[in-house]
Amino acid sequence: MVSEFMLQQTPVHRVLPYYEFFLRTWPTPTDFAAAAPDEILRAWKGLGYPRRVQYLQRAARAIAQRHGGEVPRGLDDLLALPGVGPYTARAISSFAFGGRVGVLDTNVGRVFARALFGEPISAAVAQRVADQLAGTAQSAVLNQVLLDVGATFCRSTPRCDDCPLSSACAWQRRGGDDPAPTSAAVSRPQARFVGSVRELRGKVLAHLHEGPRSEATLVRVLKDDRTPEVLVALEREGFIERHQRSWRLATNQR
Ligand code: SF4
Fold first, then answer.
1. Ligand 1 pocket check: which of 116, 147, 154, 155 to mutate, most ligand atoms within 8 Å of Cβ?
2. CA 164 to ligand 1: nearest atom
3. CA gap 69, 49 in Å, rounded
4. Catalytic residue list contains 20
5. CA 96–ligand 1 middle distance (angstroms)
6. CATH classification of 197-249 is 1.10.10.10, yes or no?
7. Nearest to 52 by CA among 115, 126, 2
8. CA distances (Å), 63 to each of 32, 60, 158, 168, 237, in order?
9. Fewer CB atoms inside 10 A, N or C side of the chain?
10. 107 CB less than 6 Å from ligand 1?
């Protein structure tokens, strides 16, 4: 579950040291549920998208309160945890517990649209196919293979010459436009990061990781008029708090 939260938006090689640190520092959901917010935010520094660690802690608290500190096995119980969507719930079910459910991410969505259909498909069709294929004894292995084919060969720019599915691939046979970009289960390219509010939020948090800062200092250092509204948003979301005449990372759980 920890790795799935970290791997949303972040590649494996960057996640590995964080994953090991988190499991070493907080070996159980109950340990993590009790950690201070500024402590976990500092541990997450550098991974990006810090909402993920907030949700991971909320999920840990729900596990501690509702499930006796054990990650639940059932898909509905997993889906009811904060920050756990269909992909994450299915990945935990399949890889941690051997559940016979299809794990559909954007990589697998591309493989299905290209290799199985050769035309654009809806998210519902992709999930149905994933679940049908996963109804075998080796569902966790199959899910992993599909994720790997999508991440290694059937990328946005596909490497068809090396792909193990090339002789059976529907798009290879049919030709025509690439069906992946217009398939509902495949994500679109992200908006530009440089100059975005997301980048500014990261810079504000990076400064507050070093210690409390006044708003005037942050505006001066960051040279960005959007800083005050970013501070208000980060406070509302529980990342930071006012301390005397400065801002600092939040120390109390909400
Ligand atoms: S042959 Fe090409 S398009 Fe077909 S599944 Fe492999 S990488 Fe994707």
1. 154
2. 6
3. 26
4. no
5. 28
6. yes
7. 2
8. 10, 5, 40, 43, 21
9. C
10. no
Q: pLDDT (tens digit, 0 to 9) for every residue of the chain, 254 residues total? A: 999 999 988 889 999 999 999 999 999 999 999 999 999 999 999 999 999 999 999 999 999 999 999 999 999 999 999 999 999 999 999 999 999 999 999 999 999 999 999 999 999 999 999 999 998 878 999 999 999 999 999 999 999 999 999 999 999 999 999 999 988 777 766 677 888 898 999 999 999 999 999 999 999 999 999 999 999 999 999 999 998 889 999 987 76
Which residue minimizes the CA distance to atom 1 of ligand 1?
Answer: 166
Q: What is the 3-state secondary structure (H, E, C) of 39-71?
A: HHHHHHCCCCCCHHHHHHHHHHHHHHHHCCCCC
Domain 106-174, CATH class in plain words: mainly alpha
User: Among 108, 114, 121, 155, which is best to mutate for testing ligand 1, by the most ligand atoms less than 8 A from CB?
Assistant: 114
Q: 2-97: what fold?
A: Endonuclease III; domain 1 (1.10.340)
